[in-house]
Amino acid sequence: MAEKKISGDMVINEVIRQYPWTLPVFHRYEVDSCCGGANTIASAARMQGLELETLLEELEEAAGSGQ
Predict the structure, then answer these.
(1) Which end of the chain is more exposed for a tag (fewer CB within 10 A), N or C?
(2) Are 16 and 22 contacting, i.e. CB atoms less than 8 angstroms apart?
(3) Cα–Cα distance for residue pair 36/63, rounded to 1 Å
(4) Long-range contacts of 31-38 (CB under 8 A, 24+ apart)
(5) Domain residue extents for the chain
(6) 14-43 pLDDT, tens per residue?
């Protein structure tokens, strides 16, 4: 199994810098990548009432696709 690139303790803006193609996933879940971009993914998921694992899976898929 491939090593995961993204974890819940990563900061949103850092993920977007490393994997810009994850931005649509953040937008789809209405995760603030501007003013809230300094939050961790886990914190943002908690604030939005999202399942962290689901969000991470979609971010991983986007990061792995390179698009």
Answers:
(1) N
(2) yes
(3) 20
(4) 31/55, 36/12, 37/11, 37/12, 37/13, 38/11, 38/12, 38/13
(5) 12-65
(6) 999 999 999 999 999 999 888 767 899 999
The tokens of 15 are what?
């993920």
8-state DSSP, 34: S
Token reading at 3? 């090593």
Mean pLDDT of 38-49: 94
Are 25 and 59 in contact by the 8 Å Cβ rule? The answer is yes
Q: Which residue has the tokens 């604030």?
A: 47
CA 17 to chain centre: 11
Report the C-alpha gap between 21 and 5 in whole angstroms: 13
pTM above 0.90, yes or no: no
